[in-house]
Design goal:
This protein is mainly alpha-helical. It has one domain: Orthogonal Bundle (Apoptosis Regulator Bcl-x), CATH 1.10.437.10. The protein is about 70% helix and about 0% strand. The protein is built from eight helices and two strands. The protein has helices spanning about 10-25, 50-70, 70-80, 90-100, 105-125, 130-155, 160-170, 175-200; strands spanning about 5, 10. A hairpin with a 2-residue loop joins strand 1 (about 5) and strand 2. About 40% of the residues are buried. InterPro entries: Bcl-2-like_sf, Bcl-2_BH1-3, Bcl-2_fam, Bcl2-like. GO terms for molecular function: BH domain binding; channel activity. One of its GO terms (biological process) is intrinsic apoptotic signaling pathway in response to DNA damage.
Length: about 200
Amino acid sequence: MACERNGMSDERIGRALIKQVIEEELKVMPAQDVPPLTPIVKMEVTTEQEQKMVSQLGKMIRVIGDRVRDDKEFQDAIDGVAQGPGSKWDKFKQVADKVFEHGITWERIAVLFYVAGKLAVRMVEARLPQSVREILMWTVDFFKNNLLGWIQEHGGWINSFSELAVASMQHMSSMSSNNYSLVIIFIAGLALGSFITWRLSR
């Protein structure tokens, strides 16, 4: 049973966020190569507050995910799911287990969702578009079975913003000072927006 906080469901937000991240990553692929992702599982958010939260979290996940893009070990693991013999589910589970090998954090949840988006792109590139839906379903199942309880115990998605903002800023520390300032302003805006959304929903 999904826990409701201020009219918002952590499960609905998580499902919608996974779908949004995967769809965002798939935008780089030709539209005719990408299978529709709905209706596979009911993933729609039901309130404007939930939609705003999904949108803001999606932006932060993309910033954090850029670090994974430069991690050769992760890229090799992602490539390994799409290529070679063996169960793709087992390989996906190995990648997910690697993400959380040192425990669950908000940042690692963001990384898993980003990795799912990259896996979906690899599946389309490997001419396995039917596997995109499998990636979506596997990620949702992993989220429900392994992460949702932790999210609820840690105050729900609304409590993820501060840690994700810090992780995003740390990742951007290597950027030029001009870009870094823009990122800080962007993340501060996201955090303020999420706080306002939270206050209005109380």
